[in-house]
Structure formats: structure tokens, C-alpha cells
């Protein structure tokens, strides 16, 4: 298209401004985005991780039709040293049926009619004798919806696969595996995936949930946290190397949010997801220290920060360098070869890496951050490192973090804040006065406390200020992204879900409208409001950007108040524009919110719009309006 370039140039702003923050919190990964339907497939729930856990957590022992025999958890000659436990079924007499296990997944296994499911496991048999295994999907009343029989045979571990096609849908089915002949069989990695995953990857992601995330059109994806990245102790740091390779060789563990993490959604899958949604990957690694709140002290400023011993920092730093090679190195490099072996010889084009998450600015943290930062800078000068400045928009850690980042000339720092909606309205000017010569900002976590439309509009108003300051705020992501019903540890979140339903919040639709309508140039003066700030909840704010790729000019207008406001718009400066526009409006009652009971209370509407060179637009009460005017 002849791009609307002729008008006076705008301010260059970050082309990567709005992205997403994925943290494995609220069962976002296992039981969530990761499509595995079996809980505790590898029998690695560990009592030392969590008092109530054991290797048979979420499994029931089945003794059907008077079968005789026993079951135990074993660890001799396991499938892999990283996956030390497995189950042994010893059938003395199957009698009419057999002996085995049942798994009801994460709150039940949801089955859809007409869909197929990939079952797999590893097995070995005593002395290599054949053991028939009956595999079934049963509904909550025990009716069999699908079944198949496999013959396990061989004294060494072997993978077995089968496809199951249930005859009916069921919201809360279970998977049953029965050994149905006399003999002994060992089982591990008992797994069930829907055949249809996001972009149809094996070991993939839940398609409906991933699609809702993809529809945000994020420019980047941050992962795997949050606090999860630095863990609640040295043995709980998220170690990327333990999350790649064959899934049966990855290291499962309790995560900082106190549930089990299989690492089935690991670094390869994160990078692959970024590629699928055309977003830049933004991994965050621990800065050689764990969360300062380690040891159960959730008091900010707690003393639990545990540090990688300095003698081990060279190895730790090498792990970070290896991560960059894993993402970007040629397939012939040591770690690039691991990526290629996973099926991706081409690089993932990593540009950003975060070091640290909200860490207390102790001397120990700084020393380790500096070691990692300098090593990355020396070996990979084109990688943009993101530092960290604590968990609040102000305070000691914040000030010290900024001073440290500026001293080291860290390209970006990660700010986090969760505040009342009024705070977001009152602080609309926050970045207007930032020193443009210093480190740039990644607003890595932010949210107003709530999921009402008013919360979402306060965030929208703030996002207009992020666009206005898109030269200094290079990246921004709402947090957290996902939360599973009945397993939500942190509120509010952007998307709620259970096994069958996904509920995008009002806040989601704000993120989506900004995500789908990003630009790379900012223009002031398009409305009389553009440079206004919103000190109260009744002032309309706006921003205007142009997208170089399409030449489209995009105007966003936010009215967090209860009275419609007429705004004059002047597009005369843009010479290459049509009058064809689309108008997206997000509006409802001030306190409306989307819930499982009312998932569609707050939804955007889209309609065609005629945009003259100048026009007046009435911004409805409690609304966000996005007018996208097509370039020629
Ligand atoms: O987003 C939830 C948590 O909030 C993140 O894990 C942490 O970084 C912040 O304190």
C-alpha cells in the first residue's frame, strides 16, 4: 500500500510494545495450556515436595472382576534417571478382568465427541513375556467410551501408542489401564493427549486456550514467570536445561506456586509457541538468586534470598549463554544441535533475555547479576538484556534497581506494579518525564486490582500513555495471563478457564484491542485530548499511532467516566489515508465483568466507520473506542 507517510512524521515508538506475560501460576501450564490430560503421568509427585503428595497421587488402584495381584511403586532401573519412579503391576490371576490404574486427569478428563485422543506409555515385562494391556476411556458412571488392547512385550522399556476415539462426549472421563493376563509389567509415562493441539504439534498445547492467547496478537511472549523463574530456593530455580529433550527425560518438580510441574511445556515448547503466534520470545532466567520470599516468608523484604555459590557462578552463567545458543546457534553448535534434534534446525531468533525477577537489590544479587550480564554482553552483544527493579512502582528496591541498571547501562529494566484502577488513571503521566538517555522500560507485570470494565478501562487509559511514551517503554505485558477455575492462586488474571470453557475478561479485550492495533509511530495533537492526562475517572484520554506495514492510522479513545464525551478528531496531517475505517467499541456497565456464569457481559463490537479529515466522535460512557483508518 502507498503508506500514509506524507504527513508530518510521528515519534518512533517500539514496534514490540504490547506482548504477554506467561507464568506457570494458577495451573496455567499442567492442567492448563499444556494439553496433557493425565495428571502425574510419570509417578513423580514427591512427598518431599509437598506433604500430601506421593507417586500415586491422582491415580486409583483398580482390582476389577476379582483379579488377584498387587501394585507397587518401584525405582530400580527406571526409564531415565530424571524420572526415577514407575508402577509395577503383578497379576497373579486376572480372573474375569484385570488389575491396574485409573486417572481422572485434572478435575476429570474432558472428552469431545468426534475427536481422537493419542494414548501412550512406556512398559516392560518380566523376562520379556507378553502382557496384554486393556486401555479404556470411561465416563463418570463407568461406561466405556473407547477402548483398545496393547501387547507389551520385552524386558527393556518400550514405548507403546494407540488412538482412542470416544463414542460420546464426557466432561469428566477417566483413563483406565488394566493388565489382563498373569504376569508382571512395569509402566511409566502414561499419557493421553487430544489429537488436535494448537498448530497440531505433538506434546502440544490446548487448542482453544492457546487460540484465545494467540488472538491477543502479542508482539512478544515472556515466560516462564514471574516468581516461578527464580523459585523459592536454590533447588527450585527454573532450570531450562531440565525442560528440554524427550519428555520422559525432563525433570518434574514442585513449582513456587506449590503444584506439580512436569516441564512437558518446556523451553522448546515455549519457543515453538512464540513462533506459532509470531511473537518474539522473552525468556526470564534467575539472576543466580532465588526469590527473597523463599522459606515461606511472603513478607516483601524477607530474608530468604538464596544465592548460587560464587564458585558455581561460572557454570550457572554458562547455562545462560547456552540458552542463547539453544535459541539462536546454528544447528551445528552444541546447543543448536539439541534444538535441531527436537525438530527445529532453524534458529528461534532470540532478541531479548530477562535476568532476574523482582529481586531484592542485595549485594549478592548485584554481584551475580553483573557476572551474567557482562558474560552475555561480551558473547552476544546484540541480545538485549532486561534487568529488574523490584515489585513496586516505587521504593528502595526500585530506586536502587534503577541506579544499578543505569550504572551498568542495562538496555531495559523490568518494572512491576499491581495497583487500584484510580492509581492507573492518576499516574497517566508517569513516563512523560522519564530520562530518554537512560535504560528503557519493560513494564513486565501490571494490572489494576479487578476484572470489572472500569478496571479494564483504567488499564486502557494507562496504555494510551504507554503508546505516547513508546520510545521509552519498549515492552509491556499485563499479568498474570491464565487462571484455572478452583485453582486460582492470584487474582485478577486476564483469562479464566476450566476444562471446557475459556472466559476472557474485560481486561483481556482491552489487551486484545491494543494488541491487534499496534503501531510504530506516535502522533500527538490528533485530538485536543492527546496530551491530556486523566487525574480523575471522568476524563477521556486518547492516543494515535500509525502502523508502517499497512499505513493504517489508529486512534484509541478511552472514557472511564459515566458521561458521553464529544471529541474532535483531526486527521488532516495524514495525506495517504482513505476514509474507510473500522470502529471497535468495548462498553458495558461500569462494574460489568465476564464470569463463567456470564462470560459475554463485556465484548467488543466492530462496525464500519467513515473517517473524514476532521470529525467529531462521541465517546460513550465507560468505553474504549478504537478507530482504525485504512491507508491507501
Ligand atoms: O504475577 C504474579 C506474581 O507477581 C509474579 O510471579 C511476580 O513476579 C509478582 O510478584
From TrEMBL:
Top-level lineage group: Bacteria
Record carries keyword Plastid: no
Pfam families named in the record: Alpha-L-AF_C, ASD1_dom
Catalytic activity of the protein: Hydrolysis of terminal non-reducing alpha-L-arabinofuranoside residues in alpha-L-arabinosides
UniProt EC number: 3.2.1.55
Alphabetized Gene3D superfamilies for the sequence: Galactose-binding domain-like, Glycosidases, Golgi alpha-mannosidase II
Domain Alpha-L-arabinofuranosidase C-terminal residue range list: 444-623
UniProt keyword terms in alphabetical order: Hydrolase, Signal
Entry annotated with the keyword 4Fe-4S: no
Enzyme category, top tier: hydrolase
Family to which the UniProt record says this protein belongs: Belongs to the glycosyl hydrolase 51 family.
Protein name: non-reducing end alpha-L-arabinofuranosidase
